[in-house]
Design goal:
Strand order of the largest sheet: 1-2-7-6
Number of helices: 1
Structural class: mainly beta
Number of strands: 9
Length: about 150
């Protein structure tokens, strides 16, 4: 298997990991969460990486075509006599906002959470889908054409 490495991407990842471990995200200054977004037929699919976060700690809101995803990962309760040796997992509040255009149906968003991935399915609005328009002929006949 051929694997490529981008040294700048790796440097960015290490820098983000270094700074985020020292200053976890807060509700007023949340950390970003990684995501993928793609179109699949008549819907957009957005997947957010939220490993180790309980579904109860995820908050989804839509207001005026702005979708906000917030999640919080709290430190583990280790108890007395436990000394942490390595702590690399980011903690705190994570947030991401997506601006949904008028071509998306924000009223019918579906959300699912499995294996640490929050997946949203956002349908394309009916008004944004291609449709046929009837043209009146001077003879009174109508003909369908693509819009």
């Amino acid at each position: 298997m051929l694997m490529r490495t981008d040294p700048f991407r790796e440097l960015d990842r290490i820098t983000q990991q270094l700074f985020s471990s020292q200053t976890p995200g807060t509700w007023s200054r949340p950390s970003a969460m990684p995501m993928d977004a793609y179109r699949q037929g008549d819907q957009y699919v957005v997947a957010f990486d939220l490993p180790g976060i309980s579904p109860d700690a995820i908050d989804l809101d839509v207001e005026r075509n702005v979708l906000t995803v917030k999640a919080e990962r709290r430190p583990l309760e280790l108890g007395d006599g436990v000394e942490m040796q390595v702590a690399e997992r980011p903690l705190g509040v994570f947030s991401r906002q997506l601006f949904l255009g008028d071509t998306l149906d924000a009223d019918h968003i579906e959300a699912s959470y499995e294996a640490g991935v929050l997946t949203l399915k956002i349908p394309v609005a009916d008004k944004a889908k291609p449709r046929k328009i009837a043209i009146a002929n001077t003879d009174g006949d109508r003909k369908q054409i693509d819009a």
